[in-house]
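Possible regression after last week's pipeline update?

I re-ran a chain I had predicted before the update to compare outputs. Posting the input and the new output here so someone can diff against the archived version. Not blocking, just want to make sure nothing changed silently.
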Amino acid sequence: MFVDEVDIHVTSGDGGRGCLSFHREKSAPRGGPDGGDGGAGGSVVLVAPPHVNTLVAFRFHRTYKATRGAHGEGSNRTGKSGKSLVLKVPVGTVAYEQVNDRQVQFADLRVDGQRVVVAREVGRHPIEDHADAALVQRVDQEAQPVAVSVA
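New output (post-update):
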């Protein structure tokens, strides 16, 4: 079966949550915050390898999401980034983005091996207590949630 047009929905992976953690040692009772940032989510990438010649793989599976980033850990350890999701499309594929009621051309894959990132995580989910803790003795006991919005 030859399929030359499909509608799919792609989503980048969510970033991991930051960690609320405090440095604790016998010799340093007020060691300060040491929580790590959450890892970045994975991206969705379109690739045009020379051996793919149809979009039939996308006919029945229309929603794709990259993996999420791992959560941050104590001792300033950043979470692991999510893996990118690679979708193989034929050379000559034109990708469109749905903007309100119309479609806007997003990418044109005309060359063998060409890669285009179509969805990317726009930020991490940090808890930034450790960023300005060097000069401050007082430490917050609650995490501040961070909201990330995609425009």
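Follow-up from reviewer: compared with the archived run. The longest strand covers residues 102-109. Marking as no regression found.
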